[in-house]
Every structure is written in C-alpha cells, then in structure tokens.
Amino acid sequence: MTTEEKLQHFYDAAIKEARDNAGRLLDEHEKELKNLLEEHKKAKDREIAIALKAETDQASREINKTLSSQLLDIKREGKKCQDRYKEKLFQEVMTLLEEFKKTKSYEDYLRRKIQEALEFAQQDSVTVYLSPEDAAKVSPMSKEFGVDLQIAEHSFLGGVQAKIPEKNILIDSSFLEAFNNEKANFTFDGGLTYE
User: Could you tell me the maximum CA-CA distance found in the chain, to the nearest angstrom?
Assistant: First the structure.
C-alpha cells in the first residue's frame, strides 16, 4: 500500500467516522428537540386547560349569580302575588262568615259552644261572653241555658269565649281567633316548585 492509498484510506475512515458521529449527534439532537417539543406541547396544554377551567369557573359563577338574582326576583314576585290572593281569599272568607252569622246554623253553633263551655266548667263558676254584634242573642240564650251570658267589651267577630277563673282557663271559640290562626298559618300548596 502506497502512502497515497494509506492517506486515502485514512481520509475515508476519518470521513466515515465524522459522518457517523455527525449522524449520531443529529439523531440525538433531533431526539432532544422532539422531547423539548413534547414537553412544550404538554406545558401549553396544561396552561390552556388551567385557563379554560378558570374561564369556565368564572362563567359558571356569573351564571349562578345571575340565576340566583333572577330566582330571588321570581320568589319576591310570587310572594307578592300569593299575598294579594291570600288577602282576597280571606276577604271572601270574612264575607261568608258574615253571611253564616245570619243563619240558624250559627245560632246552633253558639248553643253548642255554650253547652261545651258549661260542661267543661262542671261545678266551677264560668262566665260566657258573646261578641257585641250578637247582643240581641244574649237575653234569649241566657234564659235558655239558665246562666247570665255577658257581652264582651271587644268584638271577636262571633262565636263564644268563656272564662273559668278557678282553673285559670279561657275557652276561646271565637271566630276572630280562628280567622287569625287560619290566616297566619295559611300557605299555598301545590303548583310549580323550585329549589
């Protein structure tokens, strides 16, 4: 082998080794760049996911806030409407009560309540009161039951009140008490519900 051949062989070997090294370095560099790209993509995906979640949460809070406000307005309007209908209903009840007080059934009711009060008192003294608007019924019913019925100082819309001092008991069968209890405890049930 001549010196030129040796040089050529050395040159070819050096070039081959340089190309192999360059190829290997390029492959490693390309692999590192791909890894960096993947990590960058993952980091950007995480950032996008976090930003999207933050925006979604913010939008959800805004929607809930608006919905709560509107629901509160609807409840207020519903309550106002219910209050109007409740007043109208109890005005009608009051009208029916006044009509009932003109019937014989009302007098029977008074007799029954007076009798119940007398039976409850047994041997104890009892004072039975009728509402001032029933003053015309006091005398005939006093004779009927053999007790001195009294006219109350304040109207209780009809019915009977009885006091038994020995037992410290007030029997209140007045229409005013029943009316006020019903009005205070009245609720509209049924219909649409919402949470």
Answer: 159
